[in-house]
Amino acid sequence: MAVNEVSDTNQRVRDAVLRHGQLSKQGLLERAFTFAFRGLVYAQIWEDPAIDLEALQITPDSHVVTIASGGCNVLSYLTADPARITAVDLNTAHIALNRLKLAAATHLPDHASFRRFFGEADQAENVADYEYHVRPHLDAVSRRYWEGRDLIGRRRIGGFAKGIYRRGLLGGFIGTAHLLAKLYRIDPGALLAANSVEEQRTIFEEKLAPIFDKKFVRWLTDQPASLFGLGIPPAQYEALAGDDPEGMAAVLRARLEKLACDFDIRQNYFAWQAFGRGYGKGPDAPLPPYLQPAHYEAVKGRIGRVDVRHANFADFLDSQPQASLDRFVLLDAQDWMTDAQLERLWIGITRTSKPGARVVFRTAAAPSLLPGRVPDSILSRWHYKAAASRDFTARDRSSIYGGVHLYVLKGAD
Asked: How many CB atoms lie within 10 A of CB 150?
């Protein structure tokens, strides 16, 4: 990747995250986070696409605008047959991953090779398939990224032969968590052998929950930098920590309990990623919608509807005509934002929205963060679907967020 591309990416991330002076404690944390965020953060996105699809109610004329992240949900939205999807991101590694997925879906020869590439992501054949089928059709910037080397000299595309979900900031965090558990003689993978939700709860309470009572674990999780691996910047850490007076360990325990106990592990690929560091093997392994065989032909046939852009969400909205968009997915990005950034974002969303437009986002804490921060002259134009949002939060299988929120522009539901 060219030096000017890296510099531009770093500046955009800094603009999104930095709030405090560089010599303050918060300022130092923010700058450490922007350094950590320069590379691949999420090899898999951690928002449940089943919930997104239900909340968005995509129609054949929908134009979806979403933050790209790991790209799983971008491709999964194609199963609902939208007219267009625009995926934007500030992280060039995420842009390269999205473009790799688009090229692979189009040019790999069949579903088996596509599933192996991204569903197993740990086979030597994947690198050979990249060289023969994908590389000739990948843009030059993404090709330089995947054929370049990471900080310890590994060729990045080699991650698909060694386990891409074990790489990136989040993959490293999950690996560290597994190592820490092993030091306490705890095997997170034991949960994957459960045959019922009741058995899952027993395993969680007997084997996993006690680790959060360890003094070192409580101290470690009280350090904001320890959660950079989850992609949580300092501002979001503050919101998350405020959820429980007993500290961050109690918050994380509650979120992990939901992931481990509230959903059938045989159907929850997020739990497999957390406890098994991959999607699992075999035809019955749970997978994101875009990797499921029933959706393969539809996803492949609709790839041309996706436009991936290295851009700020608000900047993209500023470039669009009035009342031209109708579906927006913000992930948890607003947790990072200042009031001024939130106001600018929602001015852009409101201006570009058609009547009945839908906005879905997550927050670290439970409540919506918009009231009192976005001017009422803007927010009053939107319905907050409180009951639906509570229901979506309860059913989001990723389990790591305090709230899933749906807003619908007035004029139509």
From this structure: 15
